[in-house]
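Pasting as-is:
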Amino acid sequence: MAIMAMDTVKNKKLSAFYVALLFSQYSYAGEWQFTPSISIDETYTDNVELTTNNEISSLVSQSILSINSSYIAKHASFNLSSDSTYALYSHDHDLDKGYLNLSSDFSIQLWPNGISFIGSANIENKARNSSKNSLADIVSADTSQVVNYSAGLGYSIANSLFSIGSNASYQITQADDNLGEQEGYIVGLSSKNGSATRSLFWDVNASYQE
């Protein structure tokens, strides 16, 4: 029994060693870049609600924290860009609230032949009713937050003769007003000739969404 216990401990140590080795393979020689910034924006408008009558003036103050970050390694990459905004409206402080805009993506190469695990996340504040007021933004406070997530697999290969890129992912779109929400698969394919091509040139793009 004592020998079996020792074997179990050794197996756990070996498993931990291989996990650490795999992680170091993807993170080795990587470079992080992180750029934060803070800004204040003051906007005066004589028609904050963008209406054709009963116009209301307002001073909209926006405190903005921006973060841009990226990580690049031999087998992995990550990008993040975000703006966290808190807006105050002088005509109606019940509208005061925070907004988030974010764009992020990552890619981790799983095998040397070009197969990667890919994903993204995006947060936008879009006009709540584009047919009624397509110009709505944070200043007019008539927006809906839309969140999109996606994750899947990508494959790419490039040489002097040709390049091929393809991806298949599952994506989810959510909105705080529950309008326009959806989920499903999306598949994309692109290919073009390489630098060594002499007589045949092509550039093909195709996509399919459920």
